[in-house]
Amino acid sequence: MSVAALLAGCGTLSGSDGEGGGPVRVGTTSQPSSLDPADAWDGSWELYRNTFQSLMHIPKSSGAPEADAAEKCEFTDRKSQVYRCTLQEGLKFSSGNALDAEAVKHSFDRIRQIDSAKGPAPLLESIDEVETSGDRTVIFHLKRSDATFPLVLTTPAGSLVDPAEYPLKQLRRGNELTGSGPYRLAEYEPGRLAQLERNDSYKGAAELKNDTVEIHYFKKSGGLVKALRDEKIDLVYRGLTPDQITSLKDGTAGSDIRLDEVVGTEIRYLAFNPQDEAVSDPAVREAMAQLLDRGALVRKVYRRTAEPLYSMVPSGITGHTSAFFDRFGAPSRAKAEKLLTDAGIDEPVEFTLWYTTDRYGATMKAEFEEIQRQLNDSELFRVKVRGQEWESFQKAHRRGEYPVFGRGWFPDFPDADNYIGPFVGENNVLGIPYEEAELTGRILPASRQESDRGTAARDLQEAQKILAKDVRLLPLWQGRVYVAAKEDIAGVEWAIDTSTLMRAWELHRKGSW
């Protein structure tokens, strides 16, 4: 599942001896929305992965969590409700301040207390209390059994921050960042550049193959390949359009550019707000699910650089099913019309379908226009499409202003639970409460008692059937990961972790390490 890492990290690297032509410059369209880990649960994690440290990490050799800032971590009870971590000795933040047990407690308490609407507090919802014992021991008391908790600790939701720099009850503003990860943020120009330099006080699992990382942010995909051809950047990650990928595949973009492709775990989906009158009737949502032709969508818009998806859990993740195909089968206007007429809906359903213009690449507009075309051509719907910038888009859908909107999801960790749990419950990532007695009251709690995630998959398959029954979420497609790099860039195959975040420290110029 090395796909994940590339999605998150983007960096520029150089050999410590200064050879190899300088830093490796990486281009991406995914720029941070915030430098504070308490305030972002999005592409900002790409930067956090390389500058902040977590108690646990997932090594490139397996998908099982191992200690990072911690020396060891383990459940100390049979119910998976008490998790104890012992820190390494002598840990420090890039500020020079000690990273001790109190700093760890502060980091987790802070995210939960601030509870930013854009932040990862829902991912830490199972924590009841964080306790310290001495300078090096942290004990997490959980509200209920949660065998996925070690996986949660590998994510940037578990980023450890310096209490002297990050107040307990308020967000840190400005363009500075203080962590204990492999790199320190040496320079930051919002929307343009993040320059990372080796953190000499870092003590963790990462073995740096470079000293410097540059991340160049592009607002639009159009300039990415041109910048690569013009040697202004050396590697492109996230933001390539289907046309650009095609030109890279056939060599027209440049013979010295290599394209790496891996089956990915990114998904795209539609979310419904059942409080909105336009889609409050389940029959409306079911009719959309019955009409949608995912094959045509990925063929026309994505030129087969993505795969149709029939569950919120993508293929390649243990427990995946095709729940939506099992329920709705092939696209059918006749079946969609019957669903509506049986519900007493005889007029075309009208609403606006919303997407974000600056988060998921240049193809979003074409994607949503194709969905609009499919729905309107059926004459059962009369849909408009509108786009909005990410900052405003997030706030608006959390306020319940959109009846239907599109989002993407990159997994926090490689478990089917992470494609279900974040979207359900009272406080979910979408800001639209989704309480379902069986799903949130029985199935997910039962699955989280299973330390064997293969066994838990049975419950999670049942959860996918409920999602297909309710149609509160409508999966569209599963992406592939494409990374374009100059031939002299090495380490790409190791740079993607299971959380879809980049290990920038793996990248280097051939011959420089």
From TrEMBL:
Keywords: Signal, Transport. One of its GO terms (cellular component) is cell envelope. It is found in: Cell envelope. It comes from the Bacteria. The keyword Lipid biosynthesis does not apply. One of its GO terms (molecular function) is peptide transmembrane transporter activity. Residues 17-36 are annotated as: Disordered. GO terms for biological process: peptide transport. Residues 66-428 form the Solute-binding protein family domain. The keyword Transport applies. Belongs to the bacterial solute-binding protein 5 family. This is Peptide-binding protein.
